[in-house]
Amino acid sequence: MTDKLQRKRLTIDSAVTYRIKIQGCLEEIWSDRLAGMQITMNIQVYQDPVTTLVGQVKDQSELIGVLNGLYELRMPILSLELVLEEE
Q1: Residue 12 falls inside a structural domain
Q2: pLDDT of residue 84
Q3: How confident is the prediction for the chain on average, in pLDDT?
Q4: Domain annotation covers residue 64
Q5: Residue 1 near residue 80 (C-beta atoms within 8 A)
Q6: Domain presence at residue 55
Q7: Is the residue at 2 inside a domain?
Q8: Order of strands across the sheet with 38-42?
Q9: How many domains, the chain?
């Protein structure tokens, strides 16, 4: 655990920024349904497209809503990462 996380204890009701990578293409129009997260696509030749969502969620309940939204859209989740402020 980093010093920054030790000083600011993460709780289920903490507002935190996350980076979520999913397999496939997801257009920016879905941002409102996914807690206003910024959506960017990375498409490279001979590779599956990867979409990255970055944004702050108000608590873990909202994060679960984003994850459920991706599930309902049938978007496979590749990674979920906590984004620290200094990044």
Answers
A1: no
A2: 84
A3: 90
A4: yes
A5: no
A6: yes
A7: no
A8: 38-42, 50-57, 16-23, 77-83
A9: 1
Report CA Rg, the chain: 14
**Three-state secondary structure string covering the chain:** CCHHHHHCCCCCCCCEEEEEEEECCCCHHHCHHHCCCEEEEECCCCCCCEEEEEEEECCHHHHHHHHHHHHHCCCCEEEEEEECCCC
Question: pLDDT averaged over consecutive 10-residue blocks of the chain (87 residues)?
Answer: 63 95 95 96 90 97 97 97 78
CB neighbourhood size of 74 (10 A) = 7
Per DSSP bridges, beta strands 38-42 and 50-57 are antiparallel
Kindly report the pTM of this predicted structure: 0.85
Residue range of the domain that includes 74: 24-83
CA distance 69 to 35: 10
Residue 36 near residue 63, CB atoms below 8 Å = no
The amino acid present at 76, given as its one-letter code, is: P
* Confidence at residue 45, expressed as pLDDT on a 0 to 100 scale: 84
**pLDDT of 4:** 59
